[in-house]
Design a protein that fits this description.
This protein is of the alpha/beta class and about 400 residues long. The chain folds into two domains: about 10-180, Rossmann fold; about 200-385, Dehydroquinate synthase-like - alpha domain (Dehydroquinate synthase-like, alpha domain, Up-down Bundle), CATH 1.20.1090. The chain has helices spanning about 20-25, 40-55, 75-85, 100-110, 185-205, 210-235, 240-260, 265-275, 280-295, 300-310, 320-335, 355-360, 375-385; strands at about 10-15, 30-35, 60-65, 90-95, 135-140, 150-155, 160-165, 175. A hairpin with a 4-residue loop joins strand 6 (about 150-155) and strand 7 (about 160-165). The radius of gyration is 20 Å and the shape is globular.
């Protein structure tokens, strides 16, 4: 067995109705809270108000920053940091999907450090210190796993780059994962965020950076996503499916916090930086079929195990045959949840694919892929993700 380390400092409060504990969770770390969310809209207006009342009943003074957008930008973070400073916040609560939780983490850094959050990206010489405000995270989607990771993804619109802060100080001190908060998430958002769950778990499972522990939890997340994501997409009010997906999301987050991700996420981040209108799960789904075909022979045992989760009849095949077949069954899964996409669907111009290929190699994720790519190979994979390319099956 290989040697490994595993670190996870976040206290997880998982279960239905646990949102009622948000006041207790936050008040352990401060009495002046910046609540970070998307703008108020009807589906979440009641939840936002409930959370503020619970916090105030627990003796916490609340300022509400509702400026979060999908693919949150440096400007969004800076505006939130200024509000945190004005409020003299001593704790930040991120309530929402990955964008809200990531913004909360970045605000926690920028409000307590010189410069902006962009100055503290994972590859910089300077990194967040212990001055970083404590963060509590409440997830309302099953997607990014940000409630249990040390990552905050931020987009710089001027540079058209999507990158990340990555530091142990960014782990939330506590998180609440309450599946009842996810019952109203629309079908396509459920599919997109849910595919991100699968991608986190799958990439953690195939990367050489994994360990026996991350293998255990990532494989369970794959199993849960395979069984329950189609149900959650089709029947959003299915509380059982939502509960299983919430747990899958948490497990996948625990996996990537220690094993990391691989090539698809490097490409997905590049897509998000250049084309911020594209959801992260969409960016992953569009390139997954081509990447699966490119990769399966590098780790056939891993692909075979995953393929048999989706189709137990693959157990009758040899490992090599099951690995090859796994690409088709995973692509069938992508189609089943309505995420079979191409670049044309997402209005990504074909003439910009080479620039996108170059951007895909900026982050180091591709170095952790079982089969490491070069620029021409990435470009070829992107071409295969276009509808009219001969390497893509016509629908």
């Amino acid at each position: 067995m290989k040697e490994f380390n595993y670190y996870q400092p976040t206290k997880i409060r998982f279960g239905r109705g646990r949102i009622r504990e948000v006041g207790e969770a936050v008040s352990r770390f401060g009495r002046r809270c910046l609540l970070v969310t998307v703008p108020v809209f009807p589906d979440f207006e009641g939840l936002f108000q409930e959370v503020k009342e619970i916090l105030e009943d627990s003796g916490v003074t609340v300022a509400h920053y509702e400026g979060v957008i999908p693919n949150p930008t440096t400007e969004v973070v800076t505006a939130g940091a200024r509000m945190a400073e004005d409020h003299r916040a001593d704790v930040v609560l991120g309530l929402g999907g990955g964008s809200s939780m990531d913004t909360a983490k970045a605000i926690a850094v920028e409000a307590t450090h010189a410069g902006t959050s962009w100055d503290y990206l994972f590859f910089r010489d300077i990194q967040p210190t212990e001055k970083t405000l404590p963060v509590v995270a409440v997830s309302t989607t099953s997607g990014t796993g940000s409630q249990v990771t040390q990552v905050a993804v931020v987009t710089n619109p001027e540079e058209k780059v999507k990158s990340a802060l990555y530091h142990p100080h960014l782990f939330p001190k506590a998180c609440i994962v309450d599946p009842e908060l996810m019952l109203t998430v629309p079908g396509h958002v459920t599919a997109s965020t849910g595919f991100d769950v699968f991608a986190h778990a799958f990439e953690s499972f195939i990367t050489p950076s994994g360990s026996p522990y991350t293998d255990l939890i990532s494989f369970e997340a794959i199993r849960l996503a395979a069984a329950h994501l189609p149900r959650a997409v089709k029947e959003g009010a299915d509380l059982e499916a939502r509960t299983h997906m919430a747990w899958a999301d948490t497990l996948a987050g625990l996996s990537i916090a220690n094993a990391g991700v691989t090539l698809p996420h490097g490409i997905g981040m590049a897509i998000g930086g250049m084309y911020p209108h594209v959801m992260h799960g969409e960016a992953l789904a569009v390139v997954y079929p081509a990447i699966l075909q490119y990769t399966y022979q590098a780790v056939p045992d891993r692909f075979a195990r995953v393929g048999r989760v989706f189709d137990p009849s693959l157990g009758d095949l040899s490992e090599a045959e099951a690995a090859a077949a796994s690409c088709d069954v995973i692509e069938d899964f992508i189609k089943k949840i309505g995420m079979s996409l191409c670049f044309e669907d997402m209005k990504v111009p074909s003439e910009e694919l080479r620039a996108l290929a170059e951007a895909s190699l900026v982050l180091p994720d591709y170095k952790s892929h079982p089969r490491v790519v070069d620029l021409e190979e990435v470009y070829a994979l992107l071409l295969k993700s276009c509808r009219m390319h001969p390497g893509r099956t016509q629908e």
